[in-house]
Amino acid sequence: MAKVVQFVKESYEEMTQKVTWPSWGSLLNSAVLVLVSSFIVAIVIFAMDKGATFILDTFYKSL
User: Per the CB 3.0–4.6 Å rule, which of 12, 26, 29, 58 could disulfide with 22?
Assistant: First the structure.
């Protein structure tokens, strides 16, 4: 049980003293970057899906 308590104390110390946390501005910038990147990837995948659907529909209608 003493080892568990020591582990929790050391973990708490490391999280509060040794870890460098990002500033709010940096965190906000990263979140916006992820949101915009996800939106762009979603648009690209949507366009590829619509393009493939159009090509396959055209091919099957020509048969």
Answer: 26
Residue 13 placed within a domain: no
| pTM of the model as a whole | 0.67
For 18-54, the pLDDT digits (tens) are 989 899 999 999 999 999 999 999 999 999 999 999 9
Residue 41 and residue 33 in contact, taking contact as beta carbons nearer than 8 Å: no
**Residue 14 lies inside a defined structural domain of this protein:** no
Distance CA 14, CA 34 (A): 28
Distance between CA atoms of residues 14 and 6, nearest Å: 12
Q: Residue 52 belongs to what domain range?
A: 22-63
